[in-house]
Amino acid sequence: MLTFNRISRTGEDRIGLAPQALVIAGWAGRDEHAIQHHIEELAAIGVPRPSSVPVYYRVSASNLTQSERLAVLGPDSSGEVEPVLVALADGYWIGIGSDHTDRKAETAGIALSKQLCGKPVGTTLWRLEELEPHWDQIIMRSWAIIDGERVLYQEGKLSALRTPRDLMDCRPAGLEIAPGTVMYCGTLGAIGGIRPGTRFEMELEDPVLGRTMRHAYDIELLPVVS
Length: 226
Fold this sequence. Notes:
226 residues, 8-stranded mixed β-sheet, 17 strands
């Protein structure tokens, strides 16, 4: 069960959600430059190019977590900040999450790698329709603790990514975004390249409505035993 603090212009409340489906939209850049940048940074670590863009990966909803600690197998995983669409009975809401991925497994199969790590998601939601008029001005950032140093890992405006409505319009036949569905909506290129860390922090800043949502988690490395 996930718990969210929903904040809108009409008020604030808390809601529990037992997610029914999890979708991760990959290669969701809005323009060719953004798409190619992400393809090339993944290719640099051995990840094959996608068959098409965007790509929609179906992942077990049980992978979603709001824990402040994420256990992963070995040292070859990393996070990436994403806006997260949450479909509820009263409409669409936006949160923040990390498509934490085992990069070693990703070189063997992207769909496989998506299933192997928990998918952290924050506890704050904003109503999508309140963000859409200024979606392109919203800023997304992440930081990682790498070799003991906190570094800016990603930063950019959501204008670099397809909007949630666009991603819903592009979805393949048979993929429903029904209430209870959570969809990760794409990421930005990593500053300095994709690399692992021991902690991942992320935020969405809405400069128009003057608010920021944040989430962070520590990464626990489990030993690889043959």
